[in-house]
Specification:
The protein is an all-alpha fold and 164 residues long. Helix 3 packs antiparallel against helix 5 and helix 3 runs antiparallel to helix 7.
Length: 164
């Protein structure tokens, strides 16, 4: 991604009075809804007596989240605002740790967890993940490769459910 591409992708949000607030709101809303939906799924599995499924719905995302976090810390790819001399639309001062996007990974691994239990919800969460990936790029906090890698890690990690 170049500075010009970023400016083109973020222009609809930068040129209107409410654009940045809308972009930030979408980012926070998707993140919070998915974050809070995950424990709700675990509670459902617990009270339904699906302890085997619940174990894997906790273990797989937790282990993969740790692996993604460790990789990000060791690899520490710079963020767009560090390289392109841009002002991100979402307030962020983190240096490095951009690849892969952990926000996008988390949405997709939770989406795959839901897909394992209830496919329609997993599909909806996956669609929200695509929107979040775009928002994170348009906001200037991730490169497209960061969000694509986060999504792929979540999807491929979620395929572990098929092996159970």
């Amino acid at each position: 991604m170049t500075k010009e591409q970023y400016e083109r992708w973020s222009a609809p949000f930068r040129k209107t009075k409410w654009g940045v607030k809308i972009l930030t709101g979408i980012d926070r809303t998707i993140t919070m809804l998915i974050f809070f939906s995950y424990p709700a799924l675990l509670v459902y599995l617990f009270f339904s007596g699906f302890f085997h499924k619940m174990f894997f719905c906790i273990a797989i995302p937790a282990v993969l989240f740790l692996i993604v976090s460790l990789f990000r810390k060791l690899y520490s790819a710079p963020r767009p605002y560090e390289i392109l001399d841009i002002q991100p639309l979402i307030k962020k001062e983190t240096k490095g740790k951009s690849f892969p996007s952990r926000h996008v990974f988390s949405v997709f691994i939770i989406g795959m967890t839901y897909f394992f239990v209830y496919k329609p919800a997993g599909i909806v969460i996956g669609m929200a993940g695509v929107v979040l990936a775009y928002v994170r790029v348009a906001a200037g906090v991730h490169f497209p490769k960061d969000t694509v890698a986060g999504a792929l890690c979540g999807i491929l990690g979620g395929l572990l459910y098929l092996m159970i």
